[in-house]
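Bug: token stream looks shifted between consecutive jobs. Job 1:
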Amino acid sequence: MEAQVDRQFDSVFRPVRTGNAFEETVERILQAIKLGVVGHGDRLPAERDLAARLNVSRETLREALRSLQQAGWVQARRGRYGGTFVTYRLPAPDVGELRRAAQDLGAELEDALTLRLVLETGAAELAARRDLTEDQRTYLRQRLADADNASPDEYRQCDSRFHLAIGELTGSPSLAAGIAEARIRLNDLLNAIPMLGRNIDHASDQHRAMTRAILAGDSAAARRATEEHLEATAALLRAFLG
């Protein structure tokens, strides 16, 4: 799985910039796990590569990984095929958890939804305007196929990867990182929405419409399809919150 998600490492494993390198390193890794960029059973990038991506010392990285291992998020394995592997599993969707997460966000909920809408519709429009390479086109199709073929347990991670992929295709690291940050603000809420078969089918149809528009270079349709998809998700979220 490591090679498949390598494109999205740049969105979440960004250089640490605050004074507390340890805490931000832990935060970056947790974000990658919660967003599904690295899911259960996946291996994190090699220590040297990850430390370079985060711009921290290998000792700081090791300390962060030790803390995450003690908390049950990752596990270190030795040997030829060793490394640090994700052991965390996303919790089952739960309306009670959804309401607790919404309460934690409070008045910031609508702000977070608005930010996501602006960033992701803009990203879809920009991706559609770009002259994408065949490799980039294949990448987006694969992310769509992963979400279409995901089991209920895997769907939320594959959905997240699909949305992050569109940010990657804009060619703007700052925009891709902004989409990842906006999604992490809503991640607990999105993960707690009960998995409804009809809703998944509807979301898949919308994902396909977004993909078709981007690959066809139709920026207006890409923006419109993305807006419809995000508004539908927001409406479902508000419905469960009562």
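Job 2, same session, no restart:
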Amino acid sequence: MQHPTELRTHEGTVEAYDPTTGEVRWRHARDGRRPLTVLPARGEAITLWDDGFVTATDGRSVRWHRALPASAGWLAAHGGTGVLRPLGRGILAVLTPRRVAAYRTADGDLRWVLPARKGCWFAPERALHRGGALLIAQPCARDAWTAQLVAVDDRGRIAPHRRSLGNEALGRGPEQLNPQKLVAAPR
């Protein structure tokens, strides 16, 4: 079993340190690129780079990578604050002003995409977790403040009667009730 590591960014690298000894376990760099933010995930590091690439690495190899369309200019001006957000059940949300995309952390598989409404944009730095949901600010020029908030989880946008995307682990289907949720009596 591999022991946990501490992840840090240093100049143009992502570094994993042994928390007991402080020794560097591994380093990962991309030529001419700078890591903006890094998250731990199952013994790996998921990194957002300044050119809009997201990579998952264990230090020996890059397991998967994804490009964020038309984001390099925005990232250069705003940095990576709030862009990478874990959603639970092995799903990572990647927030940009134009869209929210969710990837499975095990293999980088795209699970769902939520575009910003016309005339609106997402504000990644203002998103926050509340219970099992990620609440994302979506400022709009003409909408009331109550319409300027979107809630998502590992299955996508939270809405009544939504269908499962198949993110569940095998043997655990959406038909099973969660005892933590209250169920209203039939009317």
